[in-house]
Amino acid sequence: MDMSLLSIISLLLLTVASLDSVSNSPADVVGISQRLSKHSLSSRRDLMGPTDCPWGTPRRINGVDSCCEVGVADPLCCPLNGETQCFCREHSHPHRKQGNRGESNGCGSESLNVPLWLQQAFSLEFADVCDRHDECYTDCRKTHKQCDLDFYNAGIKRCLDEYWSTWNPLYWTCIGRLNLFANGLADSSAWLESIVDSCYCSAHENLNTAQYPFGCYEDRSDRQLPVSKGRLGSTSTREFNPERCWKECEGYAYYALQDGGHQYGAECFCGQSWKENEYARRPWEECSNEKGNTGGPWRNLVFHRHNLG
Description:
With 309 residues, the chain is an alpha+beta fold. The protein folds into 2 domains: 200 residues, no CATH class; 97 residues, no CATH class. It has 9 helices and 11 strands. The strands form 3 sheets. A 6-stranded antiparallel beta sheet has the order 7-9-8-11-6-10. It has a 3-stranded antiparallel beta sheet with strand order 1-2-3, with no helix packed on it. A two-stranded antiparallel sheet has the order 4-5. A hairpin with an 8-residue loop joins strand 8 and strand 9. The chain is globular. The N terminus is likely disordered.
């Protein structure tokens, strides 16, 4: 079958599904503040989330089925039902990996059989709402429930802003499409997968020693910082972030991230001197990549361990 025809058929099916979703929506129209305070999926909260761990190993902790990382000294654990925050062992806390999230691309998922461009065309009103939802899924302090409730409430408001009145049929078509997305999110493993890629556990309450670089510098084969710790991402699900490199470089006055856009994560280098006069300082953007500020190709994002050197 011609792909354009298949795409049109897919769009029609999505439209029919959205209209069916509207027909199953509550018809009592109340004030906007009341609508925004009522989440139509609240009755399904006990069924929310996947039934199996998409990563790690399943554990039952405090009566809640959870996924916990394996193969790391300080594992991150997240509840399958998404009702509460992810957590670490005692005296440790989840922290966001610096710049370890990709760019948001609106609504839709490449894992679905429907082309991504078609999903995005189907949800044009919600593009920025979906972007904020993507970012919420990388926030270690937020729960699956919080992110999806915020998404749904923002979606309702967007439908009203776009179509002015609940008497407008296009408003209810918009709500129907929103319901399709929200129902898909409720049982998805996307939150769990995003959180484990975006967060890690650390006993440090404040990470000032590991978060603030003082410069972006060129590197050469003779190396600005001579001690290489390799790419942690090649042997672990974790990628180097400033604090992990800081730990690897214990005893050294300086450490740096380089080439963080690589599929296996940034390289980590250590040294007692940063050789200021031997290596040229470069613009900050040369130490950025699609994952954030984690160094560029042959560009060191250099940090100073303040209690040394």
